[in-house]
Amino acid sequence: MARLRQGRAPASSPTAYKVISLLLQYPDERLLGARDEILAAVARLPLSRQKESIERFCAYWAAGSPIELAQRYVEVFDLQKRAGLYLTFYGHGDKRQRGMALLRLKKLYRAAGFPLEGRELSDYLPVMLEFAALASPEQGETLLREHRSAIELVRMSLRDQESPYAHLLDAVCAGLPELSAAERAGVTELVREGPPTEQVRLEPFAPPEVMPSTAPRR
Question: Rounded to the nearest 10 degrees, how much is the dihedral formed by the CA atoms of 144, 98, 212, 37?
């Protein structure tokens, strides 16, 4: 499940961001096999708004059957354009600039000692949250705040769908400062205009080292 290679042992028990990172991933056999362990980690979190939001989601996730959870996940994240978890899409769409944004994130993870491994793209929100859990608090907050507008857009979309996953985005935002005026403006712009949609047909939109594998993700 982990996407980042851990260069050092975490200084403490799993953080809220690590838990959210796991819960936002596709509920495959491996993840659901760790359900009891994850719920126990949630129970150990300190009392906070973040923990309360995670527990609201867990009330749904703990009771669902594997088939129901998988179907619901696909409906929420794979079939809704404004609920995807690949955050640079909202700022760059299919434009070439997205490739540079993905490469920048990959270099950021490597420089901090947590190089990205596997097929997942560097802008996948669970990857960002895992980085926030492993890196310094300042590095984690800076990364998430850089993508705050996209996070808020996904959060709004999940609320509109009345999805339990909205609680996890609430938990992410509960760990961040209040929205700044610039961040609010960014959210408003994304809601109004949506992501750019330039299609590049002659070559991939990203450098080869950040392109996803053609193999199915799940």
Answer: 10
